[in-house]
Amino acid sequence: MEGDGVSIVESDARGFPEPPFSRGEEWGDGPAPYEPGEAPYRPGDRTPPQDMAAEQSVLGSMLLSKDAIADVAESLRGHDFYRPSHEIIHDAIIDLYGRGEPADPVTVAAELGRRGELERVGGAPYLHTLSANVPIAANAGYYAEIVR
């Protein structure tokens, strides 16, 4: 394409277009890892992730602390998350909190199970992993700003 800085040769000896990189050049890390129940990224669906650790930390904080939920409830929406499973988890936590019910790994797993979405987000073990890997739950507001 003209002006985009990529030069593509019409064809090589086999009749296929020349790739827009040098022959023999290594690129990519192989297949992208996906969480259970997640679809691969499709261009235009979502903004590529800026900080997956921040997404996991804000959700883990919310699973550990009612104060963390209050800190992020007004500033962060489900669609701010890159991973669809994180959006589902966030929305379940917010729903429980809004009903005045506790939101921890056990109650969120029960809520997601009731909705038929528990396996889609990686199951109860993933919820426990989120809460176990939080650096400091009191920083949930800061993690939320990174996600947004």
Which regions have little confidence, pLDDT < 50, spanning 5+ residues? 6-13
> Which class do the helix and strand fractions yield?
mainly alpha
Helix content: 40-55%
Total strand segments: 0
Largest sheet: none
Overall radius of gyration: 20 Å
Strand content: under 5%
CATH structural architecture of the domain at 52-147: Orthogonal Bundle
Total count of helical runs of at least 4 residues: 6
Structure description:
This protein has a domain at 52-147: Orthogonal Bundle (DNAb Helicase, Chain A), CATH 1.10.860.10. It has 148 residues and is an all-alpha fold. The model is unreliable at 6-13 (pLDDT under 50). It contains six helices and no strands. It is globular. The two termini are 34 Å apart. Helix 1 (52-64) packs parallel to helix 3 (84-98).
Task: Report a brief summary of the structure.
This protein is mainly alpha-helical and 148 residues long. 44% of the residues lie in helices and 0% in strands. It has 6 helices and no strands.
Write the layout of secondary structure elements.
Layout: H1 52-64, H2 66-73, H3 84-98, H4 105-115, H5 123-132, H6 140-147
Notable traits:
DNAb Helicase, Chain A; 44% helix; mainly alpha; 148 residues; 0% strand
